[in-house]
Specification:
mainly beta; seven-stranded mixed sheet; four-stranded antiparallel sheet; about 55% strand
């Protein structure tokens, strides 16, 4: 079992920055692909960025060049640095831990609200 707790959300003006963090509990953090997803009101949850156990990353087109995902395996933490924020980035952001294969595992945090508004 993995428990995920997000922090760092809040209200920011357009063009501003926020850093989201997700702290994981449980063992074997390094085996999971960690991701950040978001869900805006009336929309489906969508991938923002993810990072594999080996450090490979991929980003949604909307996040490329503005957001950076990173992980610290020693601290069991994954972070999302968000720069040049836009009103359309407003959403609840969720941390995810995923492992595929025969013993598939998929864990979610409770979410943290990010609001971009002047």
């Amino acid at each position: 079992q993995v428990q995920l707790v997000e922090s760092g959300g809040g209200l920011v003006q357009p063009g501003g920055s926020l850093r989201l963090s997700c702290l994981a509990s449980g063992s074997f953090f390094t085996i999971y692909t960690m991701g950040w997803y978001r869900q805006a009101p009336g929309k489906q949850r969508e991938l923002v960025a993810r990072i594999t156990s080996g450090g490979s990353t991929n980003y949604a087109d909307s996040a490329k060049g503005r957001f950076t995902i990173s992980r610290d395996n020693a601290k069991k933490m994954v972070s999302l640095q968000m720069n040049s924020l836009k009103p359309e980035d407003t959403a609840v952001y969720y941390c995810n831990a995923y492992r595929g294969g025969l013993a598939k595992e998929d864990y979610w945090g409770q979410g943290t609200q990010v609001t971009v508004s002047s």
